[in-house]
Design goal:
283 residues, mainly alpha, Lysozyme, Membrane-bound Lytic Murein Transglycosylase D, Chain A, three-stranded antiparallel sheet, 7 strands, 10% strand
């Protein structure tokens, strides 16, 4: 959970924006332990652990000076697209979808076929899958239970990240120079490259549009600088007015009350005070 910061709120916003269950954000926890630069012995890379072929299949560019598997925004879009496709393929069964993300859809389809030939129903718990894949799905289920009730299961709850520490996405046209973007936003170069590990100091990425992640406060500085060719997609800060409640704000911005509370580290149905800043993610 400590390594998940500051990605967690960004990932949660993307998962919910695309209509996927919140537990999907546990996939990179199991895949890479939320290490954005992770590389496995099977050459799977990044938060979502794409192998080269699958990454390229879902639109990630791999070249000598840029590896899209380490691009948190691009890899997240590719992973969510892949998971949505798997979920359609397996008729909405998320256990089979998660298993296929680990073992490959062909392996899971063959296991289902063999199970049905033997008289089974083809459910995850009946399949003969590699032990790694069986453990993989169980880890996701176990983490889901732990995060839903950490105290009840004997864990110390993770302290929510402050709302103003979330990430914003910057869509940059091909002509935007990374050094200029860093200077205009005021972010420390080391922090920039830590948040955007697909890019390297003194290495020019392919000439194309790119997406970068910046802390919200740095993205706001970039917006104020009005840098040509860079467009910021930032979560919205809403100032509480008289009569506003979590329910009222949730309806106004088209999000659920529970999610709005989670994004701001508030208990459900928490009272709000006039002037308080509330963050709306998934923008």
């Amino acid at each position: 959970m400590a390594r998940a910061e500051p990605y967690l709120q960004y990932l949660l916003g993307e998962v919910q924006r695309q209509g996927l269950p919140t537990d999907v954000i546990l996939v990179p926890m199991v895949e890479s332990a939320f290490q954005a630069t992770a590389l496995s012995t099977k050459q799977a890379a990044g938060l979502w652990q794409f192998i080269p072929a699958t990454g390229q299949q879902y639109g990630l560019l791999l070249s000598e000076n840029y590896d899209g598997r380490y691009d948190t925004h691009s890899a997240t879009q590719a992973a969510l697209k892949y998971l949505k496709r798997l979920n359609v393929l397996f008729n909405g069964d998320w256990l089979l979808s998660f298993a296929a993300y680990n073992a490959g859809e062909g392996a899971v389809q063959r296991a289902i076929q063999l199970n049905r030939i033997a008289g089974g129903n083809g459910t995850f718990w009946e399949l003969q899958l590699p032990q790694e894949t069986q453990n993989y799905v169980v880890k996701i289920l176990a983490l889901s239970k732990v995060l839903a009730d950490p105290r009840g299961l004997g864990f110390k709850p993770h302290k929510p990240m402050p709302a103003n520490n979330t990430l914003a996405r910057v869509e940059a046209k091909p002509e935007v120079n990374i050094a200029d973007l860093i200077a205009s936003s005021g972010i420390a170069p080391d922090e920039f490259y830590k948040l955007n590990p697909a890019f390297k100091p003194d290495v020019e990425p392919p000439v194309q549009a790119h997406n970068f992640l910046l802390p919200l406060e740095k993205a706001e500085i970039l917006m104020a600088a009005n840098m040509s060719g860079a467009k910021v997609y930032a979560p919205r800060k809403v100032v509480v007015q008289k009569g506003d409640t979590l329910s009222v704000l949730a309806k106004r911005h088209g999000v659920s009350e529970i999610r709005l509370a989670e994004w701001n580290g508030l208990p459900p149905r928490a009272s709000l005070r006039v002037g308080q800043e509330i963050l709306v993610l998934g923008v």
